[in-house]
Known about the structure:
The structure holds 2 protein chains of 2 kinds.
Chain A: H1 3-47, E1 64-70, H2 77-85, E2 92-99, H3 105-113, E3 115-117, E4 131-137, E5 143-148, H4 153-163, E6 168-171, E7 177-178, H5 182-186, H6 188-192, E8 197-206, E9 211-213, E10 216-219, H7 226-248, E11 260-263, H8 264-269, H9 280-294, E12 300-311, H10 317-337, H11 348-381, H12 387-413, H13 422-456, E13 507-508, E14 511-512
Parallel strand pairs in A: 1-2, 1-6, 2-5, 8-12
Antiparallel strand pairs in A: 3-4, 4-5, 6-11, 7-12, 8-11, 9-10, 13-14
Chain B: H1 8-58, H2 65-70, H3 74-90, H4 93-105, H5 108-118, H6 121-133, H7 140-146, H8 151-163, H9 169-178, H10 187-197, H11 202-211, H12 217-229, H13 240-245, H14 251-261, H15 268-273, H16 276-279, H17 285-298, H18 301-313, H19 317-327, H20 344-359
Amino acid sequence: MSARTTFLAFLEVTGVFVLGYYLLINFNYLFIHAMGLLELRDEVREASWEPLYEPFTTPFLPGIAIVVPAYNEAGVIVESVKSLLTVNYPDKEIVVVNDGSSDGTLDRLQQAYTLEPVDAEIPFDLPSERVRNVYRSADYDDLLVVDKENGGKSDALNAGIWLTDQELFCAIDADSIIDRDGLLEIVRPFLEYPRTMVAVGGTVRVANECEIEHGQIVDVDLDRKRLVALQAMEYLRAFYSGRLGLSRLKGLILISGAFGVFRTEAIREIGGYREDTITEDFDLLVRLHRHFINDDRDYRVDFLPQPVIWTEVPETRRVLSRQRRRWYRGMVETLWTNRDMIGNPRYGRIGVYALPFFLFGEMLGPLIEGLGYLIIPLAVFFGAINWPFFALFFVVTTGFGVFLSWFGLFSEVTSFRRYEQPREILRLMWDGVLENFGYRQWKTIVAWRGLFEYFRGVQSWGMMERSGFSDGTGETVTTTEDRTPAVVAMADKIDDDDIIESTDGFHYPFSDRTTPPATDRSAADGFVWQNTDDAVEADPSKEDSE
Amino acid sequence: MVVPPVSTELVLWASVVVLTLMVVAGFITLAESIVRLINDRRQEAVQSDVRFGMLERMTSVDPDWETWVDGLSAVERTVTRTQLESYLRSTRGAERERLQELGRTLGIPAEAKQTLRDGKRHKQLQALTWLTLLEEPVDEERLRSVCTADSGLRAAGARLLYETDHPDARPIGTDLLVGDSDTTLSVYGLDTLYLLHRDDPTPLLERAKTAHTEWRPSLVIQVLTVIRHCGIAGRDAPLAWIVELTDHDLPTIRAAAALALAPEGWRSSLRETVDAEALCVDPDAETRRAVYTMLAEWGDRPALETLSEAARSETDQRSQVHALERLYGTAVSPPRPTDGTDDEDYDRAWRWVRANKEVAPSS
């Protein structure tokens, strides 16, 4: 057999493999979307009647600690806390963890909320960097401020989780906005399954261009920037189809770090968030599954579509690329760390379905698709396969991709309808098409880059790049003191050139870290790596600019 | 070629299939969006008029709802129902009664009773909610036959009995809520069970005494939680079964049992029955914390002394703090630490509790 024949055979076999692979993967996606739709139908029906109990008079709502890690958030922290204090929930504690800020975040809190130090050594062993002091507010019983050495987001979360006495905790970002009744909704499963419910996730939506008043989203608007709109489309598909579908299949292995409520004791049992992982939220839930299954204990993990948290997403391709590469690396890392669970029947649906789905669909899927974009045209060029084969590959990937996007949009329209206007739906549909012509292919390159970075050991976090939300006057607000009405924006726009490398060559949204990678808060999902985290990583020493 | 070439026909067929899926999904999505927006707009257009009309009549002595309702268009009726439901949830007294009259004028009770007979589950839930808001009694047998499918329906049925002041609301409602041993309560059910027994949990204790062995652990915990929040039970109320549960295999049940006993510490017989010292060495830290809460709520000197001893010997730091927090400011204040003591954990916990209480007494 000549070299040419071998080469052609290789091209042909690879092409066939890629096509077959994608047929199988798409079948799986369709299945999960269908499950998601069924689940959503049930949720919508359930939401069509409202029980008559009054949350503020019933004695049964468990206490929730809202843990807010904060690094250099002097510009927004006072307003953020004010916003959280107004969230409708009778028994809540706001735990702000100042993670070694250098911009006066703590001073601002002290001035605004009359903080008084708890003048004693903490009697627990905390799995975090040293806590300098704990403060309680003289004005608000439900505000606790922890001041600690810088250690990263996971580290800050752990400090908060260990220092609260509340039965449940909710980890959110200082710059995200919970729907006013979000906590009341998300806590429901914990009451219905008091013995077994350990974690419930809520929906994350794109807040860019949304209008905010008094710390709440009052007008949902679709950002005119194409990249933001594409992400809005992705988030819809991922949450209303992906997570709901996996939840129905009892295979939810990711709750976004931006909006999840957990049983505090269960998280303490597994040692809290890991600081040496890039995607601490993905890692946390997989470890939670492992822990309870290994101990042979009944437990439940749920996802609810109705409670929503709003967050800002990257607005430039460079930033988005960094974010997605980081998520990709985190997914590879988590799957590798938990490789013994993949395909292992001992771990039930998590082992035999959810993890393999992530491995083959989310991790390998984009890589193989990217390979297809390279190999199949080559194979056609050399005559190893015919043009119809190439067209079929295009239909199976791109055409079917559009259909799945529109499927997700259908779920939005027939459920909670945060995008009410048909023109917005039409725009999202158009974005669903565009997403598959260029953006999708670009993401396969991002996935390959993420994989290479993983093998190179890149562990970067990043600094925030936010433009802020609209303040109700139609003007976008960037973050500085006294300018933002309610939230957001962490820093003024930062370019690569502005990014300051920390001592370990590692950055994350809240800090220049001084400890090894505690890294990211990402959120893998059934479909798109999404996280609420629009934090961007930046490690100029290791990453090329886009 | 290793594999036969793909035919153009196959590609065409695949394209047709995918395109059809796309067109169907896209058309339905857009059409649905337009239809819903048109409905929204129509309703928004009449919202103010309906609200003003309703509020005006709600406050008048003779609202004459019939004349008003006769003049409403179909869209206005829909909006009226939505607003009526909202107002019924927040009004009381004479205004509420007038709004309930409006509901009857709109024919909601008859419609709801019909739906209860032959509607789907979520429609039945909506119907039960309407009937509860309008305080329209429903035949007991009807409720028993309808409200069996799941915990949501049972809770809604029990709530209807409670809100309509049915003479047997408590036994029938309790039966609906916890009659199925293989279930757990919804949040609504939990709250309704609480309302049914808030003033005197004795009937619930009587029922749970015999039934709890058949229940799922989650339901046992839920009922114990309700008992904890209810008022004090009658002198002869059976509590021995709860005491027995403090020795259950599941720590979550042991903890819930200890908390359920907390408000009943006024009974010397109970305090004598419970082996508090043994409970204080439970292997599960959460259970021990529940026991510490129970002892603190009992508040008598022996209980507090037992708690004080337990605080001293507690090995779990968090539980130690929990015990000391509950002792703080009671008649049996925990012994102060002395410098150089051999129990540094205890000293640290004591100082921490004191410092917290000084800064925020309610913490």
